[in-house]
Amino acid sequence: MSGRRSRSRQSMSPSITDEQINDLMAKLQAVLPEARLGINHRVSAARVLQETCSYLRSLHREVDDLSERLSELLAMADISGAEAAIIRSLLM
Amino acid sequence: MKSSTRNPNPNPDTPRFGPSKLMVAFRFLRALTLVHRTAPNSSNAARSRRIQRAAFASMAYSAGPRRAWSRALLWRLHFHRARRLCAGRSRAAGVPRRPSTTRSPADELRRLVPGGTGMDYCSLLEETADYIRCLSEQVKLMQSVVDSGGPRGR
């Protein structure tokens, strides 16, 4: 995961440095699952953006699918019984 | 109460299930029970839409106003709620309005990230990383609810 923002905030200069872009790209690459881009550092910015879009779309789809499944579960069972189990599993 | 035999988190920067993730979980579960209680006889599609909105809402509320994407989501949720109370239908959060024809990857990203259209390039990249982090956590949370939500004690 990306570290703390320990570096001092740059002043809001109108021109964006390449270094800043590369830094942000690296942070973005870090949150993408490894299978998508490999641990290869030399990935073009365009490729990172493409994979990011594709990953975001798949995450949105997963939220939709899981919402449907949860909706079916709610219809069948009372969720309050499972709440304690979920919280317990999250705490462990 | 609890025995402290489990290992302390090696990385203090990213606690495994820190207070913010528990907050998201509590909010989401509370929203789920509300959906269950207030509309037990609604259609699957309507309930699923409410759950999806609850997912984005709990993400956005837990991130708070410190992030542009969460602000955009919160605004969108309140805006759509107001419209729903006054009028009939409204678009679900996250649905693109027009099919993309020739759009650069950055523009495509702007449409996928809440609030993206108003951001400069650097902010877009930063917000996207944070949004993806929170969104993937939300997916994990929902998955664990599904996993543990099966009928118990048969």
UniProtKB/TrEMBL annotation, chain A:
Which PROSITE patterns does the UniProt entry name for this protein? BHLH
Supply the Gene3D superfamilies for this chain. Answer: Helix-loop-helix DNA-binding domain
Superkingdom of source: Eukaryota
The BHLH domain sits at 5-59
Q: Per UniProt, what is one GO molecular function of this protein?
A: protein dimerization activity
Alphabetized UniProt keyword annotations? Growth regulation, Transcription, Transcription regulation
SUPFAM superfamilies from the UniProt entry: HLH, helix-loop-helix DNA-binding domain
Question: An example of a Gene Ontology BP annotation on this entry?
Answer: regulation of DNA-templated transcription
By sequence similarity, the record places it as follows: Belongs to the bHLH protein family.
For this entry, the protein name equals: (wild Malaysian banana) hypothetical protein
What is the species listed in this Swiss-Prot or TrEMBL entry?
A: Musa acuminata subsp. malaccensis (Wild banana)
